[in-house]
Amino acid sequence: MAGETVLALRGISKRFGAVQALTGIELEVRAGEVVALVGDNGAGKSTLVKTIAGVNQPDEGVIEWEGRPVSIHRPQDAQHLGIATVYQDLALCDNLDVVGNLFLGREIKQFGLVLDEVAMEKRSRQLLDTLSIRIPSVRIPIASLSGGQRQVVAIARALIGSPKVVILDEPTAALGVEQTAQVLDLVERLRDQRLGVILISHNMADVMAVADTVAVLRLGRNNGVFDKHSTNQEQIISAITGATDNAVTRRQARGEGGER
């Protein structure tokens, strides 16, 4: 069962010049919950993720962390709070091994000078074992791994700082069936470890397989939040395409405010 709300967005809006990218977005993520963020191209998913991650700053609205308002002006602010983001491009270094990628920029040093390779290798093995990630060796170059293995290494790297919320941007894109299953298994293990997970995906099969809650964005606005266990894929797709707009979205589109 999901626990207390860790991250909450209240009325988040973002404009880029004449383009209104987000309008009054509401979202909550609880400990031990997978929230799938879905929507068509241009719905605002990437903008919202970058706002949470500190890449963009909202023009309006409040971000709450563990019940208190916070300001996230840069990615370091998000990381210090406990928000980790794994982008679709993974940003892995093919010429480094698994250990080198996991600790890139966060190397463990002896006396502040010399890299402690033994400590980093031990920590890498412990982390991968905890997540049940199967890698031939922590010293194998990233270039030698499959797409699915690279994805789980990127997710593992995000966990080095012990975050409370992990954002996964299209983690199964371009993966085969077996590799996709490996990544989805890892998402479920993150939930079992009481992390909040935001999953951005176009693949409805993946969403229905692991999500607890599905939040739909359409044209930069909320268009429904669904409990996966009490809805079906057709209802979610209807919200994505606009076949059914929720009442809040219709009022916002007309410029009206408040309940009637």
From TrEMBL:
PROSITE patterns: ABC_TRANSPORTER_1, ABC_TRANSPORTER_2. It holds the Pfam family ABC_tran. Keywords: ATP-binding, Nucleotide-binding. GO terms for molecular function: ATP binding; ATP hydrolysis activity. The keyword ATP-binding applies. Residues 7-244 form the ABC transporter domain. This is Monosaccharide ABC transporter ATP-binding protein (CUT2 family). It comes from Kitasatospora cineracea. The lineage of its organism: Bacteria, Bacillati, Actinomycetota, Actinomycetes, Kitasatosporales.
